[in-house]
Write a structure and sequence with these properties.
This protein is mainly beta. About 0% of the residues lie in helices and about 55% in strands. It contains no helices and 17 strands. The chain has a 9-stranded antiparallel β-sheet, with no helix packed on it. A 5-stranded antiparallel β-sheet has the order 2-3-4-5-6, with no helix packed on it. The protein is globular and about 50 Å long.
Amino acid sequence: MKKSLVYYVSIVAGILLCVTEIAQNNNFRNHWITTFPYGNNDITILHQSGQIFYFIKQQNDTVINKSLLGTETKDADFSNGLIYPSVTTQKTDEQYTILIGKRRLNQNLCNQTRITFTYKNYESIQFITRAYNDGAAFRYYFPAIKKDTTVANENLSFISAWLMQYGKPTDHAQAYENYYGPASPIIHNAPDSSNWAFPALVNSSDDYILLTEAGISEIFYGTHLKK
């Protein structure tokens, strides 16, 4: 069973993005931009010194600065020493209905970039980015992952945020039921070892970004944040 991690970034002002490739030669290609065809919003994936970074701009203003991407399994560190071999792009446009909520008929319209990297020339990981009308998403995908592989660490980073302390379970309350307050995970540690919970409301200059995860299933755990 293949596993993946999914993180959904929703910019409150709203962005619709499409895929644009920048470099001319595959051997020298090191960054890929997903941008809105009728506006000035874009998300960039950058391959630099064997590491993967991302940053997001809206109307030429940076809302998420250059930040690290990557994950570690018990067998390999997919945040360092990555080599780029290939990239593909595609567009998705499909309709679906839901039984609850304010809108029954919905549209899944996005553009996607799938960038494949190798680790030590044998293990591969794909960074998949999607651009929607109201945000951007990315996930890691392991094409040939072993069924019993354990994800040991997630190295996503981002700027300061409004966060909820994850909390420890007690006799009268579950974890992840707490109050939100301003925090800066770059500077401050969480109050205790339970760390921070998704979703996180990120403030960047005059913009706000709701950062959370999606695609959680019975074969993969839900994550939370830590300093």
